[in-house]
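SAMPLE LOG
Freezer: B-3
Tube label: C17
Construct: single chain, 222 aa
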Amino acid sequence: MKKNNIFWIGYSDLMTSMFFIMLVLFVVAIGYLLVKNQENSELIGELTVREQGLIQETERLQKLLNLEEQFKPLINDSSFYYLPDCKKFIVKDLMGIEIFDPNQVKIKREYIQRTITVGKKIDRFLGDLSRTNKGFSYLLVIEGNMANDYRHSKHPDRPDFYIRSYSRALAVYNLWRSEGINFRKYDVEVMICGSGLNGLCRDPVEENNKRFSIQIIPKVSK
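STRUCTURE (predicted):
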């Protein structure tokens, strides 16, 4: 009987130990699953946020693609020449013409009305864009360009050419403003600049670089 009692006591201790081990393993497993569940919830939440961000970005890109189509009226307008590589518009009737007095920033009298007409067309175009595309703002770049003298070529980085081309672009903008043309009413930021004898998409016929160009850059609000 004593041996039998010892057996049952040992057996009872073994079962108790195994029960304790199983209980510990159960608690550890539950804890592990809870941690994993928390991690999975955080991962799902992060993926959801990323998915929403991708959807919003796709919507913004789609708006920009649609906006490209809406630039066609200006591209097809007979007053402008479009440079697709730079996405710039050149005033066709004024390209290659010295519309300013020599070495001055004053527009010649005979070209004032043409310049005003172009400004009004840009104004109407920006107005149409503003009404059609809510949530957009725009950057309008007015850039002055100059032609180099092919007989006595000047250094393209001369500071006075940058200043003069900028001043001429500013003169064009000031003329438009004096005629009541206010692009900023369409949530448009206006930037005046001058590239002198430099700049992208220069015409191979140097005389045609006597011009000013405009660039309209759309921005989508988040």
